[in-house]
Amino acid sequence: MAEDRPSTEERKPAARKDVIDVLKAIDRRIIFLLIALAVILPLIFHLVFSVRTSPIVQAIFDKVEALPPGSKVMVSFDYGPSTVPENQPMAEAVCRHILAKDLKLYMMAVWATGPPQVEVLATNVIERDFPSKAYGVDWINLGYKAGNQGLINAILLNLKGMYTTDVHGASIDGFEMMKDVQNLTDMSLIICIGSGFPGVREWVQFAGDPGRIPVAGGVTAVEAPLLYPYYPRQLLGLMGGLQGAAEYEAAVVKKYPQYKEHAEKAVKLMGPQTVAHLVIIAFVIIGNIAFFGERRRLTRAKKG
Amino acid sequence: MLRVQIPLIITFIVGAALIVAVFVPHFPFYEANENFSVYFDLIAVFAFILGGGNLLKIHGDRIWKKGRDWKYSMVTVVGFLAMLIVGALKIGGPPGLTGDVSADGSWFGFMYDAIFVPLQSTMFSLLAFFVASASYRAFRAKTKEASMLLVAAFIILIGRTPLGHYMTGWLPPELQFLHVPNLSNWILSIPNMAGQRAIMIGIALGIISTSLKLILGIERSYLGGESK
User: Fold this and answer.
1) Residues B48-99: pLDDT tens digits?
2) Exposure letters B28-67 (e unless 16+ CB within 10 A, then b)
3) Where along chain A do its domains lie?
4) Which of A20, A280, A294, A296 to probe by mutation at the B interface, max B CB count within 10 Å?
5) Chain B neighbors of A49, CB-CB under 8 A
6) Most exposed: A65, A235, B139, B141, by fewest CB within 10 Å?
7) Distance (Å, rounded) from C-alpha A128 to C-alpha B188?
8) Chain B residue at shortest CA distance from A282
9) CB-side exposure of B190: number of CA atoms within 13 Å?
10) In the sheet where A139-144 sits, what is the strand order?
11) Cβ separation of A157 and B33 shorter than 8 Å?
């Protein structure tokens, strides 16, 4: 047993462990725990910050606001369950605004995982806040079709050729709001809520530019920087991540305070995101303190 | 010979017609563009059959030969077949070809909501933990460039939260350019956009040259052969 114990010499480095050694070797489980707490505690204690709308998001709001009642707006749900926390609040905020303005809401998906999100939106927004809006008259769910950007190109030229039925299999000729729709150029605005390929970029390239239709987008925070080259001429506005969604919600609530109760999903989630960002920044700073401390120690050791 | 030449001729005609249709949106090119787009979407549907068959072949082989990670392949195949069968047979939902596959009570809808949604959400949520851990270990100001990246990252991280407004919202109008959200927007709108545009133009040029090689029959690897 005694042989297993480290000798006094072997134990020395551990005893000499200083602050730098501690800072440079933080157990990843501690990091995971702090990130978990950074998300959970603000949710428990309802930490909510006020959000201001930035010009790039305000541009989308202003465009929707400027459309006359009855104008047609296409919203494409090009995301799946993995990015719902970021994408669903922006989709709900935009659709709530469209219906509040008495515009015609057309919903479709270039992603197979999009239609279930439309169903969620129908329950969370339309049935709750707009019970008087009728399916097929004020809003419609066209569902998903395969083809990626090829589908966008096809419906730019002939929407009814591709969508002969809605998502439930009913003939679209039977819906009042489909009677005067031939192709995408009948839309006053296209809003793509996406999280990858095909997404906002493909809507700009295959619908917005060739059809001269205004396109706006809402994407995950990771994807947003990739789309800045299209703003503002090809992409009239962009919601980037949860912050973008919260900014749109703030603009909607400011103009339509009657929807405040259900319309601040992203605003409420900005608390955990803010604290999580601070924790990440703190760990990066700690990592750099350890890095420079270690470098200084090595330099001293070389000189010594 | 015909096995190579016929696809090459089709590629040339379709490619050339679609390019012309962009510049001449009139009869017959406009109609050709419309029809080819619809044909493309029809063909895209068959890609699912090809993809499904490929998945079963690769993972089936691995399971049969008990290759590396064959147990994961088993999970993949079982998951794929389970979703395919309950979806194709519309179990629990309205029957028939036009029956809604995800209608209330359908097994497909239940499996999507109860298995697929939580799995995808969990996988994406884990990113937050790994990003934090990786940032701590790898994000070091080792060089001037790395230091600039670090500063930009801090500005974006703070600027993309309401905290930025609280931190520097008190700045007088003449110093508003130092307001963190404004700095964050500047980084995204100027240096980021310049870099992204350069990358995009490069990619676009690459796509043009590859497309031309395909249309002119120089690139033939998609036919299963070698390029000229």
Assistant:
1) 899 999 999 999 999 999 999 999 999 999 999 999 999 989 898 887 777 7
2) ebeebbbbbbbebbeeeeeeeeeeeeeeeeebeebbeeee
3) 20-47+269-303, 55-263
4) A280
5) 161-163, 166
6) A65
7) 37
8) B136
9) 7
10) A139-144, A104-109, A72-78, A189-194, A215-219, A238-240
11) yes
- What contacts B161, CB < 8 A, 6 or more positions away? A49, A243, A270, A273, A274, A277
The complex scores an ipTM of: 0.83
CA A101/CA A129 separation, integer angstroms: 13
Q: Which residues of A touch B116 (CB under 8 A)?
A: 81
Residue at token pair 């089709």: B10
Write down the residue that tokens 């703070």 correspond to: B158
pTM: 0.88
Q: Which residue has tokens 């999970």?
A: B75
Using a CB-CB cut-off of 8 Å, the residues of chain A touching B87 are: none
Q: Which amino acid is at B64?
A: W
Longest dimension (CA), chain B: 76
pLDDT band at A1 (very low <50, low <70, confident <90, very high): very low
Contact B44 A116 (CB under 8 A): no
- The CATH class that applies to domain A55-263 reads alpha beta
**Nearest neighbour of B38 by CB, restricted to A50, A154, A240:** A154
Q: How far is CA A19 from the centre of its chain?
A: 40
